[in-house]
Every structure is written in structure tokens, then in C-alpha cells.
Amino acid sequence: MDEGYTVAGQSMPNLTTLYGGFLILWGVAISQISDSNSVTSYFPSLLGIPIMISGVVANKIPEKRKLVMHIAAVFGVLCALGGTRFFMVMSNSETSNYAKSSMLMLLVTGSLYTYACVQSFKYARKSSQ
To answer: What is the pTM of this model?
Structure first.
């Protein structure tokens, strides 16, 4: 069976599951390392949960793949948009380096993930014709 569009040998549902897991681990790790008392330090984890769930559902229920991958793409865009806050705080000495690194990570990885999603959607559209 054709796995469709792949990135580094990974199908998009697998990549989505991995990316969601990475975001969850990042949010928890940064929150623990920085001893943050703020719920916002878990923002990457909160975005990672629906992304990871979408990847798992896309693998387990192929007939729902199109829907859940679109949902994951929306959360990828939210990651990228959330990361744009980095530009507002990058020279702010009151913002911790942990927070800045999380914002930059969200911007970069969210943008790359969204790009991969768009390429996957384009591939699927061309393959169906």
C-alpha cells in the first residue's frame, strides 16, 4: 500500500505522532527544568496533545485520516503562530531564556510541520487525479 507523502522516510501520520510527542515532552521538560509556576510553560504540551492524538487516529482509523490530518495541520499553524511571540520578547530581559527558546522552537517546528502538511495535501490531491 502506498504510504503517500513521506518526510525522512516517515508517513505523515507517523510524523504527526512523533511531533506531538516531542511537543508534549518539550513542554513538560522545560516547565520542570525552569521551575516555572506558570501554566503557559506547558503551552507546547497543550498543542502537542491534539497533534499526537490526530497522528494515532490517522494510523488506527484510515477512513478518518483526511479529517484528523487537517485538524493536526490547524494545530501546526497554531504552533507557528504562537511562536511568533518570540519576536516580541527576544530583547526583553524579563522574559526567561526558557520561554524564549520554547517560542522559537514553536515557530520553527510549527512552520516546518505546517509546510510538510501542505506538501502532503498537495501530494494527495495530485495522486487522486
So the answer is: 0.92
